[in-house]
Write a structure and sequence with these properties.
By secondary structure, the chain is an alpha+beta fold. It contains 12 helices and 20 strands. Strand 12 and strand 13 form a beta hairpin. Helix 1 runs antiparallel to helix 6, helix 9 crosses helix 10 and helix 11 packs parallel to helix 12.
């Protein structure tokens, strides 16, 4: 076939890179240069026809239209924009290659006879595999098939930081004197659990897995005041000196030497201040006020294609509401944060972080609605708020929900533990994190190792979840559990971390 200048194409002008591979297949020109042209090629014969004719007959199945084209046939090559034809030819190539080859040891060996004795397996297999790969890539690029694997992924993590102490002594106090001693015991335990040191281990977990988005729970803010003052909730509280800001301390470790993460949002939740006996004085004596503000937070990786918009947050309507000292009702605020995110060119999805009630574990648990409910029913009501009409986990966008749900259908410790997880599953959510190993929880309030008594064997159930409302588009690629071993003389938290890589639409 003549070109625009009226002369036959040169042997150095193959119709494509695949033609070049085919010519090299027969000539064995491993250095990329063409072999000398055969003498006496008939006028008008396509370049390489003599080479095509010398190929074995069964190569026709493998090489398809290109062999016949090189042999001078009028067979038309597929249209450049016809992905269906490209895919058909690619599929014609691969089954025969796979049938003829076997992988073993470190190479590929053909089961059939060697052809002519002048070439080895690599002269045929490698160019052919390259040709097939090009064809498949062209096919998938032109028109992605329905259900094709997503090219977008997102790395997400849920991490409960552990607020630093068990609040049960304060909840069980029956007098102001007992409450003051309990508050002192709690804050001394916070000091013992040394979050500035734990933040180093937590940061290492996060940096090792490099999540694009992190949902934090129990991201506590502890504040003190030298003035002792009795407060009746909800305050106003006066302690302003920051003793421990878990979010700030964690970010300082994450961003050492370089900014890697930023705060998308924090949600202040349970907030309470009390007189505290922290210096071991006489029972009921106070030397400072201590204030705890519980928070959830979302972190996002910077300079890695993570876009965020439409950030919202709120508290749940149904709350745990114990009676402090038997008379003062103290609602324990819990809530959620949501943000619409787009990761490295994906479509927008909604990312939600939450922490459902952890003290909802009794047969008669008081609520702020003036009722008493059974184990797990407050968590269930909070989960249903997420998925009710107009809730943050509804709408047009696919949802990725992370958090400490304090619930699981597969590993409940007692009846009722499964209720919140089951409510989400009933609404169409599906789990997108591993159960091997489990992530909850150390049976100790003191995280020092080994003195605190925490053991990896105590991680025996699941409460930390990564879920999606759109399981068809958001699939699990891989998942791992972090922080199941102590570091720097402390466990990072009483929970382990849960990390997953997910596909995105």
């Amino acid at each position: 076939m003549a070109n625009s200048r009226g002369r036959a194409p040169s042997r150095r002008e193959p119709c494509s890179s695949l033609d070049a591979l085919l010519l090299r297949l027969r000539t064995g020109a491993a250095n990329g240069r063409d072999a000398p042209a055969p003498a006496g090629r008939p006028l008008g014969q396509r370049p390489g026809a003599d080479r095509a004719a010398a190929l074995p007959a069964n190569a026709t199945v493998l090489l398809g239209w290109r062999r016949r084209a090189l042999a001078g046939s009028d067979y038309r090559r597929p249209s450049a924009d016809s992905w269906r034809r490209r895919l058909r030819h690619a599929l014609r190539v691969f089954p025969d290659v796979l049938w003829r080859a076997r992988i073993y040891g470190g190479g590929v060996k053909f089961r059939g006879q060697l052809w002519d004795g002048w070439h080895r397996w690599w002269r045929f297999a490698l160019p052919l595999a390259a040709a097939a790969s090009v064809a498949i890539a062209a096919a998938s690029t032109a028109t992605p098939a329905s259900g094709a694997k997503s090219k977008h992924t997102v790395r997400v993590m849920t991490r409960n930081l552990y607020l630093g102490a068990d609040l049960t002594p304060a909840l069980q106090a029956t007098s102001f004197s007992q409450l003051t001693d309990a508050a002192g015991e709690i804050f001394n335990q916070v000091k013992q659990n040394d979050f500035p040191v734990r933040a180093k281990g937590l940061a290492k977990e996060i940096l090792k897995t490099s999540p694009d988005l992190v949902g934090l729970q129990e991201a506590a803010l502890w504040r003190t005041s030298p003035t002792c003052k009795v407060f009746v909730p909800p305050g106003p509280y006066t302690a302003t000196h920051v003793a421990y800001d878990y979010v700030k301390l964690l970010l300082a470790q994450l961003n050492k030497g370089k900014t890697r993460y930023r705060v998308v949002a924090t949600e202040p939740e349970f907030d309470f201040e009390a007189e505290a006996n922290t210096n071991g004085g006489p029972s009921g004596s106070c030397n400072e006020d201590v204030r705890l503000t519980m928070r959830d937070a979302i972190l996002a990786r910077v300079n890695d294609g993570v876009q965020v918009k439409n950030v919202k947050k709120s508290h749940y309507k149904v709350l745990f509401a114990p009676k402090l000292l038997g008379t003062i009702t103290v609602p324990v605020d819990r809530g959620w944060i949501s943000a619409d995110v787009k990761v490295r060119g994906s479509r927008w999805v909604r990312f939600i972080d939450t922490h459902l009630e952890s003290y909802d574990d009794q047969a008669n648990t008081p609520t702020n609605q003036g009722t008493e409910v059974g184990n797990g029913q407050i968590r269930e009501a909070q989960a249903e708020e997420l998925i009710q009409k107009g809730g943050p986990a509804t709408g047009k966008l696919p949802v990725i929900l992370v958090g400490d749900l304090n619930s699981d259908t597969k590993t409940p410790l007692k009846p009722g533990d499964q209720l919140a997880d089951q409510a989400l599953l009933n609404a169409g959510f599906r789990e997108r994190s591993t159960y091997t190993p489990l992530s909850c929880c150390l049976d100790t309030n003191v995280l020092t190792f080994p003195a605190g008594g925490g053991k990896a064997s105590q991680f025996n159930h699941k409460v930390d979840h990564i879920m999606t409302s759109d399981p068809k588009q958001i699939k699990l690629v891989s998942s791992t559990i972090t922080g199941r071993h102590p570091a720097n003389g402390l466990w990072d938290s009483d929970h382990a971390g849960t990390f997953s890589v997910l596909t995105l639409p």
